[in-house]
Specification:
The protein is an alpha/beta fold. It has twelve helices and ten strands.
Length: about 325
């Protein structure tokens, strides 16, 4: 089975061709960093327009790279949410047009499910396992019992971890996207120069909160400016902030494993490309006797390969009931549970 995956949930226009749920034939991503960097964040209207400009080109490139014809595609899988509604609609309508024109089935995929299953593009993990989806818009812990069987154990109550990285980078006078910049700055910084707070919330909670940490960083930066300097550099601030985020994420994962009686961990989503987070989670899991997996960075950030993978397994489980009709619509707010 050849699956064409489409992903336009935010600021990446992506298309991929996946064979039998395992063999990736192509994975094309057109990012919009150049479009949004001067604004310090994603502008929804500009994101939607860019998707309109790029979606046909990206689909064509993915087919050419896979060396297949559009007529050979057996299934279309497309992100239907959550995300920016204008961006989502571009991918959904492109997928519906292809589905109608070729008379092939269409499957709508939850973007979060795509992240959860991205690891299966490289490894066949035994169920059940704990998965942390950590990105610019989401910080969620799940128990994954099988394809299509997910239980949410905790989520952020305010800012997502990736969003906090972007905002702290902006506070430090850096460009968007901030995640890779914070990681780079932190490598030359001393995380012990200032201890930023860790929000573990009430005892036993698996929810997250990063707004207080973000406010603490802002307060400290303002204090440094008013005092005309201080001992901490922007590298130190980046290192201290990153350590605070990574520590909470890694410890909550271990708590979730203990609560659920599981010893397998998968960390995915855009922030999962962060080297400090990968190292910390791997270390904490090793200490506890758990196993951990991380998709390659290209499969952590938004991509269509993970959507094709999720769509394949969704359709395979029940072809008749899982195929969507042409009244399929996009949903900006969409939960997975």
């Amino acid at each position: 089975m050849l699956v064409l995956g489409l992903e336009t949930s935010c600021d990446d226009t992506a298309a991929a061709v996946l064979q039998d749920g395992k063999k990736l034939l192509s994975n094309i991503i057109n990012d919009q960093t150049r479009v949004h960097s001067r604004f310090g964040g994603i502008v929804p209207e500009l994101a939607g327009r860019s998707h309109v400009d790029q979606v046909q080109k990206v689909i064509r490139q993915s087919l050419e790279s896979a060396q297949v014809e559009l007529s050979q595609i057996d299934l279309i899988a497309v992100t239907v949410g959550p995300g920016l509604i204008g961006s989502l609609l571009v991918g959904v309508n492109a997928a519906k047009g292809i589905s109608y024109g070729l008379g092939i089935p269409l499957v709508g995929v939850n973007h979060l499910e795509g992240h959860l299953l991205a690891i299966f593009l490289q490894n066949q993990i035994e169920f059940p396992f704990i998965s942390l989806v950590v990105s610019g818009g989401h910080t969620d812990l799940y128990r994954v019992d099988n394809f299509g069987q997910y239980k949410n154990l905790g989520r952020t109550r305010d800012d997502a971890a990736g969003e906090s990285f972007d905002k702290v980078a902006k506070m430090l006078g850096q460009k968007y996207p901030g995640g890779p910049i914070i990681e780079k700055l932190a490598k030359d910084g001393d995380p012990g120069s200032h201890q930023f707070p860790r929000a573990y919330l009430e005892k036993g909670s698996l929810d997250f909160s990063f707004s207080g940490l973000k406010t603490s960083v802002k307060t400290y930066i303002n204090k440094k400016q008013n005092e005309n300097g201080g001992n901490s550099t922007i590298n130190d601030i980046a290192a201290g902030f990153q350590e605070a985020v990574v520590e909470v994420l890694s410890k909550k994962i271990i708590t979730a494993c203990v609560k659920e009686g599981l010893n397998r961990v998968v960390v995915t989503g855009g922030v999962a490309a962060n080297g400090a987070l990968r190292k910390a989670v791997a270390s904490e899991c090793e200490k506890a006797g758990f196993k951990s997996w991380f998709p390659d960075p290209v499969f952590c950030t938004d991509n269509a390969a993970m959507i094709a993978c999720a769509g394949y397994h969704k359709f395979k489980s029940s072809p008749e009931s899982e195929a969507d009709l042409l009244d399929l619509d996009a949903t900006a707010s969409l939960y997975l549970d």
